[in-house]
Amino acid sequence: MGFNIGGAILGGLTGLISTGNPIGAVAGVVQGGLSGGGPSGAGNIQPSTDPTLAAMQAADQAYEWAQLGLNLENMRHNLDLQWQSTMFNEVEDEKSEQMREMNVLRDVAMKQREADIGIVKEFIRTIKD
């Protein structure tokens, strides 16, 4: 518990006026300073008497909910980007596989043409002889 300076001054004045002697004033200072009831000081700020505490707690809670909403939106956005990246990679992998297959078929067709040209040359050579 803190010492309330405003309460001590008010208590000292009250003690001096009501008793008329310095001992009453000292007693009033001690009582007013330790009672916590005064115009200012740390003794009178309590959760049950401070009207700004509830408002600040409500503001903090609203801020936490807003942060939670932003975090959820960020997670959803990251998941969407991850899904998009995965789909792009799968399409590109399929495209690469198709291009490899086309290259193999082109190579086979070229080998077949070379073989056909060789057969035609051999046929022409046998006809000339």
Describe the fold and architecture:
With 129 residues, the chain is mainly α. The chain has 2 domains: 1-45, no CATH class; 52-129. The protein has 3 helices and no strands. The chain has helices at 5-19, 22-35, 51-128. The longest helix has 78 residues, at 51-128. It is rod-shaped. The protein starts with a helix and ends with a helix. Residues 38-42 have low confidence and may be disordered.
Quick description:
By secondary structure, this protein is mainly α.
Rounded to the nearest angstrom, the radius of gyration is: 47 Å
Structural class: mainly alpha
How much is the average pLDDT? 84
Q: Total strand count, please?
A: 0
How many discrete structural domains?
2
* Low-confidence blocks of residues: 38-42
Order of helices and strands: HHH
Give the number of helices.
3
The coarse silhouette is rod-shaped
Helix content percent band: over 70%
Major sheet: size, sense and barrel closure?
none
Distance between the termini: 125 Å
Q: Which percent band covers the strand fraction?
A: under 5%
Features:
mainly alpha; 129 residues; 3 helices; 2 domains; rod-shaped
SSE map:
Layout: H1 5-19, H2 22-35, H3 51-128
